[in-house]
Amino acid sequence: MEKNMERELTITKTITFSHVRGTITARAFRLDEGAVILVTGGTRTHVGAFSRAVPGQETMTIQFPGHRDGVISGHWAEEISRLLKEPVTVECGIHFDDLSGDEIQMILGLCGEMLESLCRCWNP
Description:
Blueprint: E1 8-16, E2 21-30, E3 35-42, E4 49-53, E5 60-63, H1 70-84, E6 88-95, H2 101-122
Parallel strand pairs: 3-6
Antiparallel strand pairs: 1-2, 2-3, 4-5, 4-6
Helix pairs in contact: 1-2
């Protein structure tokens, strides 16, 4: 690992809809080998899914019933593992009530921006 690479990072973004406002936070921990990331937010934080990506292997995602957080955890795990060339685990739980399709896309876009920020910080 690069000596100047941050071992722990927190990235927080606020999102506002017509009926609710919330934050999404990514807490990222760089280990001696690999990384662990927790992405939570909205009106009720939880773990809805987790994913593990290892270079050269198929990504494993476990998504709990009634949740869709695996879309984010799987994408983040794959992208960060590809960047670091090491194993990465991502847990994700973001909850907002009564979102439209456009609002869900806004959350996915915001999470994409957060992932880009993290990758810039950890780009070896």
